[in-house]
Amino acid sequence: MRIVLGVGGGIAAYKVASLLRLFTEAGHDVTVIPTEASTRFVGTATWEALSGNPVSNSVFDDVHLVNHVRLGHEADLVVVAPATADLLAKAATGQAGDLLTNTLLMAHGPVLFAPAMHTEMWQHAATRANVETLRGRGAAVLEPASGRLTGADSGPGRLPEPQAIFDAAMALVQGRSDYQLPLAGRTVTISAGGTRESLDPVRFLGNRSSGKQGVALAVAARNAGATVRLLAAHMEVPAPAGVEVQRVETALELREAALAAAADSDVIIMSAAVADFRPGEVSDTKIKKRDDTADPVITLVRNPDILQELVEKRNASRAGSGQLVVGFAAETGDSQGDVLAYAQAKLQRKGCDLLVVNHVGMDKVFGQDSNAVVILSRAGSEPQEASGTKTEVSEAIIRRISFELNHVSPRA
Ligand code: C5P
């Protein structure tokens, strides 16, 4: 397929090198047309080397080839990334000041814009109107992803991930012109890592959770277009870019954060390993080791079950009835029953919509890079298996969640 890849003048232009790679590795012939402004971010040499085709942004280069007519006519697909506010405006008003805008006017095939800009610019009435105009004319304009932007600000405006743009482009070519990222416009809250329950100022009761699965889920949800809020308990891996991070330590702190986040979340995924019990008393001072007193005894008290509370809160609120609550279960079988039997019972007890079940042992799952899970649904559909790296498993879980949100009627 012949693809014209227009590159706009935004910092996200550097990510388009990966998008170009995806197109060329899939066997497509790509001509890159960078705007003048974009070459201040990424030079034309990068595009020439990666595409294997000459690169120009002027209608006055190779005039004998009539490039401003030919490229648009011949392209099976035109993709613009990052589509800046300026480029969207120029395309909407039919301006033709450079090779890219000429090509857009001449395009016969589908056109996909992948916007990236600051949130205020994206939400400005002028940009909204331009996007509506372009969509009205049949162009596909992706919703930008949400998260950290170039400065200190965050919100909708990030360029969707290269793989997501690639997927949208392929869907468009197959005639699915209404294609949007599956979680565009959705807010997903994900808890990750293991809670630490204090005994005294220096000691705690903890668990082996690394946070890898929760972080991989956050990345997959972000890549699917969601606004992601990561409630991060203790994790051995860094939080990913492009998600809002709230640090928590104990189960009680996580409970407070999760209940607050639930108010405006479309999805809540409890992948954190939450301590079921905490020390009944937390000493203000370090517990001393002394020879003249008996060894200390730690009394544990039960922590609230956050997942169960989230489900109860969702069920009690009519407004929140479309919310999807997803739990995790780390199970081992025993002489009384197998892993799935225990997991089914847990799903019914907790009342969540989906339960992702891990089969754990001392060497399985915790801290590892790969995983194998079964996704159980309260609605009773067949258990779904997913295995591979934690990234692959997360993508499968996020695909299932998107399907439930977009195709299954409200819950509760
Ligand atoms: O009951 P169990 O701990 O096996 O359940 C695991 C699921 O419940 C996970 O989704 C975990 O995040 C959640 N959980 C919770 N609050 C607790 C314990 C577990 O939300 N106190």
Secondary structure layout plus pairing:
Elements lengths: L1 E6 L8 H10 L3 E6 L9 H8 L15 H8 L2 E7 L1 H8 L6 H8 L4 E5 L3 H5 L1 H12 L3 E2 L3 E4 L5 E5 L3 H12 L13 E6 L4 E2 L5 E2 L6 H12 L3 E6 L11 E4 L3 H12 L4 E4 L6 E3 L20 E3 L3 H11 L7 E8 L7 H12 L3 E6 L10 E8 L6 E6 H18 L5
Parallel strand pairs: 1-2, 1-3, 3-4, 4-5, 8-11, 8-13, 11-12, 13-16, 16-17
Antiparallel strand pairs: 6-7, 9-10, 14-15, 17-18, 18-19
Helix pairs in contact: 1-2, 1-8, 3-5, 4-7, 9-13, 10-11
Cytidine-5'-monophosphate binds next to α11 and β16.
Could you describe the 3D structure shown?
- The protein has 412 residues and is of the alpha/beta class.
- The chain folds into two domains: 2-173, Flavin prenyltransferase-like (Rossmann fold), CATH 3.40.50.1950; 187-407, Rossmann fold (3-Layer(aba) Sandwich).
- It is built from 13 helices and 19 strands.
- It has helices at 16-25, 44-51, 67-74, 85-92, 99-106, 119-123, 125-136, 162-173, 212-223, 251-262, 306-316, 339-350, 390-407; strands at 2-7, 29-34, 77-83, 111-115, 140-141, 145-148, 154-158, 187-192, 197-198, 204-205, 227-232, 244-247, 267-270, 277-279, 300-302, 324-331, 354-359, 370-377, 384-389.
- 45% of the residues are buried.
- The mean pLDDT is 90.
- It binds cytidine-5'-monophosphate.
- Residues 251, 270, 272, 274, 276, 303, 305-307, 327-329 line the site of cytidine-5'-monophosphate (C5P).
| Mean pLDDT across residues | 90
Low-confidence stretches: none
Give the second-level CATH assignment, the architecture of the largest domain: 3-Layer(aba) Sandwich
| First-to-last CA distance | 46 Å
* CATH homologous superfamily designation of the largest domain: CoaB-like
Number of helices: 13
Number of strands: 19
